Amino acid sequence: MRQSPLTGHLIGLHEELSGGLPGAQDATVAAMRQRAIARLTEIGLPKITDEAWRYTNIRAFDKVAFRPTAESNAALTKLDFAALEIPSLNRYRIVVLDGWVSEAHSTLDELPEGLVFNRLKNVLEGSADSETIQILEDRTARAGHGFEALNSAFAADGVVLRLEAGLELDKPLEILHITQNDANSRLANINHCITLEKGAKLNLIERYVSMADTRHMTNVSIRIDLAESAELSHYRIQDESDASMHIGYANARQNSDSCYRIFSISLGSLLDRHEVRQSLEGADAHCEMKGLYIGRGKQHIDNYTTVVHASPDASSDEFYKGILNDRSRAVFHGRIRVDPDAQHTDAHQQNRNLLLSTDAEADTKPQLEIYADDVKCSHGATVGYLEADAIFYLRSRGLSEAEARTILTEAFAAEILDQIELAPVREFLLELVRDKLVGDHNLKEAA
Amino acid sequence: MNTSTAQDISEFVGREYKEGFTTDIESDTFPPGLDEDVVIALSKKKNEPRFMTDWRLKAFARWKKMQEPVWAHVNYTPIDYQSISYYSAPKSDADRPKSLDEVDPKLLETYEKLGIPLSEQKMLAGVAVDAVFDSVSVATTFKKTLADAGVIFCSFSEAVQEYPELVKKYLGSVVPSGDNFFAALNSAVFSDGSFVYIPKGVRCPMELSTYFRINAMNTGQFERTLIVAEEGSYVSYLEGCTAPMRDENQLHAAVVELVAMKDAEIKYSTVQNWYPGDEEGRGGIYNFVTKRGACRGDNAKISWTQVETGSAITWKYPSVMLEGDRSIGEFYSVALTNNYQQADTGTKMVHIGKDTSSTIISKGVSAGKGQNSYRGLVRILKGAANARNYSQCDSLLMGDKCGAHTFPYIEVKNPSAKVEHEATTSRISEDQLFYCKQRGLSEEDSVSMIVNGFCKEVFKELPMEFAVEAQKLLGISLEGAVG
Fold first, then answer.
1. For A57, which DSSP code?
2. What pTM, to 2 d.p., does this model score?
């Protein structure tokens, strides 16, 4: 099979740079990277002939000479954090700059006892934590697509976090990813590992911003392990440059009685692909996945989710909504798999799309794969325009057509955002979404 | 699940197919294998004009370069296409049972329960034709009625001889010869099938089902059907039948093409009950079918209704290309899998014209170790303003070893379109059973009633007499479910 130019470029780049990556002198780490690059050479970056990527073509980025930056470069720029703050949010903060954890900008000193923090960089250099390296290794072996192999091959930094049993964090933890304004073609390969021990509770904000409209790539993996009765609320806010490519994948494993809530908000990037692979491996585990995506310009937003019910008595609830303007395109893939022993599963999934422009497109694939009989499963998907009746109702109350549309569109988005319990995050997102939607209502009547 | 239900289901699962298939060796059969010479010889044997031979060869050339598809949610041992014989002369009367007395009494019992008339029973059981004079005379009457209306209804081979221009014009116009692996194979080696042509403004005076059931048997394993409905015409066609069919071929790769012109309507119903294999999943028919209809003109309508209870593997997606403005596509399906049966079936609705609408109702019932998948595509193209689709896919699971899967694909490129998809998966609940039983129904009747209720929306789309038979068929399927 012919290799894509981007795949070839990255393989060549690895040869050039691998000697300088953290832990390059460590035989285990070097071998892991070698296997990863061999895997990338074998499978290449995804193509639209791969079923999982049939609606998402990365070819627009084929000619970009993506390149990771050295840590020393990443630390140089002075940043105005005030402009980046979520208003009135009291939080712990870890900053990731161009793919490198920036200790100087993080509030590491404040982190409470029982929260064990490490950088992946230190892990790779010290090779003390073989478990984390094993995670990277395993992912390479099972790599669903080339970006995962790429991530292991260039693995350099990320947040390795462990909450000890019973610890409830008093404030949310924000991991803020910043791509700096000189960062054209910058490639950030990031690996986070978050572990919550028995009964631990965490509010996690995973946020991505770019300082300028640069054409960079973020390739990020987050691995989440929830032990018995652990609870994680995860707010993922992707608002990178409109020219960038963002590839993210969360692999989450849940033990019994644990609860995982994710809000996945996709606003930025020219091409955004976000995968959530949820595995429910204990009785009474519960997961909620809520998503909101807003497409403008020529944005392409692909949410690819899988929920595996591997044990009985677990429940999952998935609800993704999208608003698509201009020439944007959204792809939703949702799969619920119920294994043969997973009796009494309760699994539901919904995807709703609002097309606001004649050039917008939505492709949705809600899927059920069920091997147990005593289950309650459903899924649904809709694609359409605003209800004519609803617009009429508002106009009959004296609102203009444009006002009526604005209200209805915002209400469509609010159905997801209103469920966010952290008030500052909710308010921040409502405002951000409103900004993105401004100017989007002057659309012509659908032909 | 309580023990009694578990037992009921295990007995339901234990129900045996009433008719196996035999493999008599026929004379006048091509040796196994497939190459260009076989395609040419086959065409020659059927005395086909040049264009047909060329068409088959072109299809064969395409097929040689194609890969067998693997995306369906089914598993089977690979098929050796070189071990199949691609031509076999019709069975001679000498090999058939002389009368119903020689037929397996269990089979007759099934016919009795389905309420099939004696003359048809003989046909279905493969009794020699000279014994079935009743139906032959009936057929002659039908033929005259159709001819008076101007309707052409004949075997495909006959159409190639009698109406080559029509065949040339429409063959492959909906399913091109290189459409997919199995369609290409069919195009190269199709044995026979049916040809229907309804002239402009004609409403076909009868359900072609009745006629078909007693005349178009033994069409072979590579069946090809072409139905053309001219402007303003209407036809209802039923393929297959509820009774178990005798068949010697394991691989079936059929192609059905429908063409509906302006204001025309085609209603195509299928009842498929081929041999599903035994309890261990041995044997059984592989049913790999390409069915597609094109609404070529404005206000055209194509409606597919299918009841699939047979075959070891079903791979089938009856589709509609909605080209004309305001054209309508419908798909109603019941698929039942038991033992090791696997079904991967659904539909494709491609909205091209304005104000087009489509409805998809799919009901899957899985029992035993059966695997039942719905796979469908709804595609709204940019020009399809105000297109409307509603899809509903429900699955019923009976037993804890079976599977029910739903794989819909929805692609929307027009904002004025409205597309909705819903799917649910459930089983027969203890509450439902308890309710029926405390009203005095037996457990068997209760299960049968609940399953029939689950499938009701599809059955009501079948021509009336078949709706009755299909319900009975499910009833029989559930027989023995209670000890």
1. -
2. 0.85
